[in-house]
Fold these 2 entries.
Entry 1:
Amino acid sequence: MRWRKGRRSSNIEDRRGQGPGRARGRGGAGIKLGGGAGIIVLLLGMFLGVDLSGLLGGGGSSSVGLPQLTNKPAGQIKSDDESTQFVSTMLAYNEDVWTKLFAEANQQYRPAKLVIFDGGVNSACGFTSSAAGPFYCPGDYQIYIDLNFFRELQRMGAGGDFAQAYVLAHEVGHHIQNLLGVSMAVQRRQRSVSKIEANQLSVRAELQADCYAGVWAHHAHKDNQLLEPGDLEEGMNAAAKIGDDALMSAAGARVRPEAFTHGSSKQRQEWLYRGLESGDPQQCDTFAS
Ligand SMILES: [Zn+2]
């Protein structure tokens, strides 16, 4: 990706080195990154997986409105390493694209804040360990990421800058769903159906976030020539590696489609590609099919 000259978002809060607050031990293994294959599988098994469980865990009443826009300055960036530069630039590209697309629909885009943490973090969705992977909390309109996750992605064969961009854009996709009221509708529905049906709703929501990630990449490239040869392959490869079937197989488990919460490798690739190709959020209606 050609990203180094891009604007960097100020909607970043750096909580690294701060500790999560009252992060009661959840088994130390889950919290520490950089372990062996078991941890990688754990990480990937949960990759992007807490988004909707966060929804279920509350953090937002049914009357929750848009977040108050405060003028609180973004937290001081503690380490201006390449990953930090990368995510703040990608966040800015997401802001630019969604501001444009919302404006085209006569809507105003409210950006999400990105919280960088290490170890574990407290949010409106409760305490979350780094082992759960990056996530979006609808209750506070924030994306949470431990940047060490990118190393884990690479170790599992889903490396590359566009794979990382896809991860972030997927989380922004959940923010879009939250702004559009999809998250709340899904949450409500999930409460009144069986576990299997709730999983199917989760899959549809996750695939929509993948599609939105593709829509973002389409426009980011169209407007800024962001992508280079090989980037699309990185994204499609990552989508395959994090399909539920691939994760279950990698963990040595039997593949059980009824337990899918994010979609199969094939589905994740298809919806990412659909967004990428069309650049049209209307093409992302995973709930219709
Ligand atoms: Zn997700």
Note: The chain has a mean pLDDT of 84.
Entry 2:
Amino acid sequence: MNEQQHSIIPLVEPWLPPACAEAVRRQVETTFVGPGAAAQNFGARLAEACEVHAAVPVSSGTVALSIAAQVLGLKPGDEVIVPAYGVISVINAFAVIGLQPRLAEIDAATGCIDPKRLKEAITPNTRAVVYVDFCGSIGQDLDEVAAICAKQKVPLIEDAAWALGRGRPGRRGGSFGSIGTISFSVPKILTTGQGGAVLAHDEAQRDAAIAAADQGDVNWRRTNLNNAVGSNLRLSDLAAALGSAELDQLEERWQRKRRAYSVLADHLGERLFRAADGDAAMQHIIFVERPDDVVGQLKSQGILAARPYRPQYHHPPYQALRDRDFAASEFWFAHSVYLPFGVALTEEGAARIGSAVQRLNCRFVSPASG
Ligand SMILES: Cc1ncc(COP(=O)(O)O)c(C=O)c1O
């Protein structure tokens, strides 16, 4: 009997098999724990997995987004479009460096920016569009958004926080836009505890990202002269060693994810949110009439579900951004429940969650009718 049949199932638990601890131990023994060769090697391997020119490891996915905007040359006051619903990092990353966020409505069925609603959000002042691969999805809507951005000559930042290595050959998550980013925070398919990467399409982008993460100048360690202002936003070799060990297991990690998702889907059918690309959704989401009741009922059975996100304009610093109707974002806020979804979730754990949800005395609602 698996331990997840009786114990508490947390919302997120990372999967860290012994090879992870072994890799960190070996790195410690080298005494190279700061940013160095292991981080560089991790970046090179990430670039391969994402099929991009280069990947620059940094200290978080939020920082990766800020750097991506800087690499594209965005300056304080420039307008950047972000999805109206989702994690606060995606808007804070830009506001914190002085950019002016503007919201684009999501498609209630995908959780991603709705290509049809993107057109109304773009203004003559728009300097970048940020598309989040929601739940890891690399769907057709991403191609549509990329085409709209290309036509309007607006750079696209693809936030592939959840989509490392996902997609089709030659078109992996984070490679669709003008620049891409990844996060390695705890819930992601690969975690370094905290961390992220900027996915660059050419040498100039790579150098600009390295400079932005390392005191503003790509050469200062050689020249001992800094030509620009910057900060230290690098990833340590210790974290990179863990990341590299997990990259060795990337396919296995996705298989685990797909197996748990598939067991849950067997129980919940159409009630379980499906990613737009048809692959397993990284987060396990259902929509119900009374989400707080469902979270409470599941908690009483040791299943820790949550309601993590809001429309960005609910947060006081962003209230003024509510300048249109955002019915889909409101629907997601009003009805979504995120069931446990970490990579450590076993098939037995997923079955227990699925059965518990089936037994709930609750009304489900559909984003399609929202
Ligand atoms: C879609 C998305 N983008 C960016 C981030 C930010 O990543 P981090 O937590 O590594 O800063 C997250 C984090 O959850 C995320 O979900």
Note: The radius of gyration is 20 Å.
